[in-house]
Amino acid sequence: MRLTWARRLLPLVFGLALAASIHGQSFGFAWWRDAQFQRELGLSTEQSARIDAIFQAAISQLRPKKEELDKQEDLLSQQIAAGADEALVTRQVDRVEAIRAHMNKMRTLMLLKERQVLSPEQRVKLNKLHEQWERDHKRPSRGDAR
Asked: Under CATH, which number does the domain 41-136 receive?
């Protein structure tokens, strides 16, 4: 039973993750504020406000972490370019990946909290809307010629 739940949640976590992505949202917008999503999900004003509060709280913590991640990634790139000792680079990789893991955990928990605001029926509808949005906004892969 847990595995089934996890299989259903993971694609949404990665797909919606971003609603919390610092660079942009997976849906490309705050879906809980969108009139069509609100209508199709039957999202109440109170639900929308609760989801927005969850998002705002998470993003206020994620922004400084993203800045820290960027700085640590830059330092790692500099170390690699300079031919730094492997042990030094390894420690820096550990720092970078620890920040990234923390951010991913924060995003995942944010998404979980957002989904908990929805009823089971709304979650099913959101999954379908997300799948449709993904089809409509699919980016060509690197191998696709345009």
From this structure: 1.20.120
Cβ contacts of 38 within 8 Å, gap of 6 or more: 32, 48
**pLDDT, tens digit, for every residue of 30-58?**
889 989 899 999 999 999 999 999 999 99
Domain locations along the chain: 41-136
CB contact at 8 A, 30 and 71: no
80-114 pLDDT per residue, tens: 999 999 999 999 999 999 999 999 999 999 999 99
Half-sphere exposure of 40 (CA within 13 A, CB side): 16
- Residue among 145, 139, 140 at smallest CA distance from 24: 139
